[in-house]
Write a structure and sequence with these properties.
four-stranded antiparallel sheet; 24 helices; 541 residues; globular; alpha+beta; single chain; three-stranded antiparallel sheet
């Protein structure tokens, strides 16, 4: 939660300007501040850019703040405008937004405001804590703050007990609270291969989930947000948009089943039809050799490309290379530009192709794009992209006129149309998986687009039946599921560690006492003329 304290001089000036009716200044300022607090909170849910961190900026729509911040006085003047005109503005834009390109302003707080982030982790408390009780007390937060957070994010739950119909708007996720607390503790005390920005975002998301779960009996609601593209998204922090480690911490021990190489497998489902209409005299495995190799032996495919992409001089760590390549191939399959240079957008901002952002090293990127296997893969994806787009133009021309499937200039966007087709088919095929899971009494823990999570492993028979059902329903033989076990974050054992340390200290003290006592005995015996060596000799025959 964000709490703002406004310099009392602002209220005094507002009272002088609007003395009547009584307390109107207080009420108006309170409403404005509450609106600003909510907008600052929303801004913090997005990962900060380097500029935002350096200058302490927040992404805020000043137009929305003016509209929702309330009015004051007999002329119904917007309080936002009055504050700005009289030099009491609480925020000021550093980079102004634009309605034309859909950007909001980057703002900083002024000298009239002091902000406290009540959800910020006091890292020193966790680092210096010596008991689980201390850590739990800090992470759990107080009940009032957690309820206030829930009411801010989910106002539908203010009458939770008497308004269970509100649950229809949500999907509830069961939260492993102890695992989540352990993740937060690990993130603060031991995580080293993560940037400050990523850590701050993960901590904030984790605290939100934990705070709500503490109110709703270890459950976290995700407000449904259906997309016109076919997927089901969720507003705000959700199991879909948190990082994989935080997802593992939230869900605890479970099994994740995702569609193997989903976009590429989906496209290859159209390859047979493509061959019948575009290349009836050719062999499918020869036309799509690289793509089939990717689907059938991904590890060997990746090892070959990695060998020719990253040399000994590459700055990319070896354990990251395969991950980057997978991301690059996924981007290509979604229609990402494969050029090495960027371009200026209509707003004048410089935009890099996805490949440039993924393979940041220019030499690695050059070798990747020059590799014959990569070239073949790109060419095959282009064949399928063109075929599917032509098919839309012939059979579903109405999609070309949909504004959300067009570019900013009003032309049909090929990449958006392909994404639309894929995501609708993805949702349909995952519904097949969910229906079969329900048949066997398996309730999903979470749905993540092309993946589904269960508490227990499905077993080979059920998994195989699901794959057959997917293939039979779509006529696509390339649908397969990959199973991955997720392990919860092990609860902290600080109390045990402290007790073990105390036990070791006691043993050491006893050993030191025994040594000291023995030394004193030896000294006393020597003073009385006794020799200890005579007692250690073996008796003579």
């Amino acid at each position: 939660m964000i709490k703002i304290t406004v310099n009392h001089a602002v209220l005094i000036a507002l009272r002088q300007a609007f003395p009547k009716p009584a307390n109107s200044a207080e009420r108006a300022l309170h409403k404005y501040v509450k609106t600003l607090e909510d907008m600052l909170f929303a801004s913090l849910q997005r990962q900060a850019t380097p500029m935002q961190r350096k200058l302490e900026l927040f992404s805020i729509s000043l137009q929305k703040l003016a509209n929702e911040g309330g009015q004051i006085g007999p002329r119904k003047q917007r309080l936002h405008a009055w504050l700005r005109e009289h030099g009491f503005n609480l925020v000021e834009p550093v980079v102004k937004g634009s309605n034309l390109v859909g950007t909001v302003s980057e703002c900083k707080l002024t000298q009239w405001v002091t902000m406290v982030d009540t959800m910020a982790i006091e890292e020193a408390i966790l680092i210096n804590s010596t008991s689980n009780r201390d850590i739990d007390a800090h992470l759990g937060g107080d009940e009032h703050s957690n309820i206030e957070l829930m009411h801010l994010l989910y106002p539908e739950f203010k009458r939770y007990k008497n308004n269970l119909a509100a649950l229809e708007q949500f999907e509830l996720v069961e939260v492993d609270v102890e695992s989540l607390k352990s993740y937060i503790y690990w993130l603060v005390t031991d995580a080293i291969h993560i940037s400050r920005e990523q850590k701050d975002m993960a901590l904030r998301q984790a605290r939100i989930v934990l705070g709500i779960a503490n109110v709703l009996s270890h459950h976290y609601p995700q407000r449904k947000k259906p997309s016109a593209f076919g997927r089901m998204y969720y507003e705000g922090t959700s199991i879909q948009n948190v990082n994989k480690e935080l997802r593992r911490a939230i869900l605890g021990n479970c099994w994740e089943y995702d569609i193997r190489s989903s976009v590429i497998a989906w496209k290859m489902g159209w390859a047979k039809e493509y061959m019948q209409t575009r290349a009836p005299d050719k062999e499918l495995r020869k036309v799509f050799q690289a793509t089939i190799s990717y689907l059938e032996d991904k590890s060997d495919f990746m090892a070959t490309v990695k060998h020719f992409t990253f040399d000994a001089e590459s700055p990319v760590p070896k354990d990251l290379q395969t991950k980057l390549l997978k991301t690059a191939f996924t981007a290509i399959s979604f229609g990402a530009r494969v050029s090495s240079t960027g371009w200026k957008s209509d707003s004048g901002e410089w935009t890099n192709p996805a490949i440039v952002d993924i393979l940041k090293n220019a030499d690695d990127r050059r070798r990747f794009l020059a590799d014959p296997t990569v070239k073949a893969f790109i060419a095959e994806q282009t064949l399928l992209d063109d075929y599917l787009y032509d098919k839309v133009k012939q059979e579903r021309a109405e999609l070309l006129k949909q504004p959300f499937l067009q570019t900013a200039s009003g032309r049909p966007s090929k990449s958006k149309i392909l994404a639309y087709l894929y995501q609708h088919d993805e949702t349909e095929i995952m519904n097949v998986v969910r229906a079969l899971a329900k048949k066997y009494g398996r309730e999903p823990l979470a749905n993540i687009h092309d993946a589904i999570v269960f508490r227990k492993r499905l077993g080979v028979d059920i998994k195989t039946e699901m794959e057959f059902a997917m293939q039979d329903h779509s006529g696509n033989p390339y649908w397969h599921l990959t199973a991955k076990e997720l392990k919860r974050y092990t609860p902290r054992l600080l109390d045990v560690e402290v007790e073990e340390a105390a036990h070791r200290a006691r043993m050491l003290a006893e050993e030191q006492f025994a040594e000291q006592y023995g030394a004193e005995i030896r000294q006393a015996m020597e003073r009385w003329g006794f020799s200890l060596s005579s007692y250690s000799e073996a008796p003579k025959a």
